[in-house]
Specification:
This protein is mainly α. It contains nine helices and no strands.
Amino acid sequence: MTLRSKLKAHEKKYTKSAEKKTYKGPSKPLKSDSENFNRADMDLKIFTLKLKNPNDTNKPLIVSLMDETREFRRYWINTKHPTITEIFEEYPRLLDYNGERIDREFQSMYPKVADNFISLFPTSYMEKILYYVEKNRADLFLKSSFIKDSK
């Protein structure tokens, strides 16, 4: 028996749960409920986003409205904890333009991380993925040898 075992959980400096690193979330603080978004304005912008067809003509407006509703969207997601399906039902334009909108959301929340992952992928992650596939899925590795580089 140690001295620590006699201490109550709140008296211990380190506990198993405290030792685990927890997700801290995005670096930018969210607006609090007391700051209240202009709900009518947000609802109108979200409604407009749902109605607009995702084409080249509407893209500037969609980008602008997605940017204008970003803080509200983050607040909604962090307070209501919707499912991914509910998020895409409320903001269907996130799925348009080949994932460009999702990339923009991620980059606005984590500006340093987004660039770091993209820059490291070809030199670090790709080699690890290919090594894993070669050792564990030889059939897929063989098929990958037929893929030509687009450069």
